[in-house]
């Protein structure tokens, strides 16, 4: 049996396992939780009244059309009558706004998660289940595990690190499992077929319709999508703040490009992506921006004509 050469840099199984454990427990500043928590909770009314405004229409749908998801059957959740839908809607919005203030983070945060889960059951129990909600739902589930924090809280916490790691892993799995589903149901024909071509024909804009005239371009795009989605686990290797910012810019840029070309946007997933950013640096960045603006403002006031 051969032995590793002296000075070999090949990682041992033990070091790999320690690295995986470190990923889940790497401390992060509590300020990151504080800022992202505010963003996540303030998005709830946007989602309820704009992104998924159609869910309210289920209040007028005959209850015989309700085909509850498995989780609704297991938990014996109520049938979404008109009263149930409207009560859940307003309770969710008001609770989220209260949670965004940072008060009673465990109690109000848990209530937001439970109510949003019920809102999603109401939304997805009529024959259509979207995959852009899971990372945001996980974010709402883990945020209440962190106690009271504030935007300038520089303390580092392993619990906060675990919460942010859970959201990041779910963001990654959203892409990876999307590729897996393409292969499971469409096989390699998905990559060589006309899926995006059909989408451009149905939903295209001036930013995407020109691609129909370029032979092979959209097939190449489909292959690129598969490669990137299957490579999604690599995002877990991101460590530095600059790399985190670059990753978020890349992911959000992709979703903005899709929206510009096909009018499809996964807003809850985009909110979950924001959890990757080093939000603890936001107060410093804002303070630096104000300092840069103040000399210019003072100079403008000094040179302004009297009166």
TrEMBL record:
<keyword id="KW-0812">Transmembrane</keyword>
<feature type="domain" description="HTTM-like">
    <location>
        <begin position="25"/>
        <end position="271"/>
    </location>
</feature>
<feature type="transmembrane region" description="Helical">
    <location>
        <begin position="245"/>
        <end position="266"/>
    </location>
</feature>
<dbReference type="Pfam" id="PF05090">
    <property type="entry name" value="HTTM"/>
</dbReference>
<keyword id="KW-0472">Membrane</keyword>
<protein>
    <recommendedName>
        <fullName>HTTM-like domain-containing protein</fullName>
    </recommendedName>
</protein>
<feature type="transmembrane region" description="Helical">
    <location>
        <begin position="217"/>
        <end position="238"/>
    </location>
</feature>
<feature type="transmembrane region" description="Helical">
    <location>
        <begin position="83"/>
        <end position="100"/>
    </location>
</feature>
<keyword id="KW-1133">Transmembrane helix</keyword>
<dbReference type="InterPro" id="IPR053934">
    <property type="entry name" value="HTTM_dom"/>
</dbReference>
<dbReference type="InterPro" id="IPR011020">
    <property type="entry name" value="HTTM-like"/>
</dbReference>
<feature type="transmembrane region" description="Helical">
    <location>
        <begin position="133"/>
        <end position="151"/>
    </location>
</feature>
<dbReference type="GO" id="GO:0012505">
    <property type="term" value="C:endomembrane system"/>
</dbReference>
<feature type="transmembrane region" description="Helical">
    <location>
        <begin position="107"/>
        <end position="127"/>
    </location>
</feature>
<feature type="transmembrane region" description="Helical">
    <location>
        <begin position="163"/>
        <end position="181"/>
    </location>
</feature>
<feature type="transmembrane region" description="Helical">
    <location>
        <begin position="34"/>
        <end position="55"/>
    </location>
</feature>
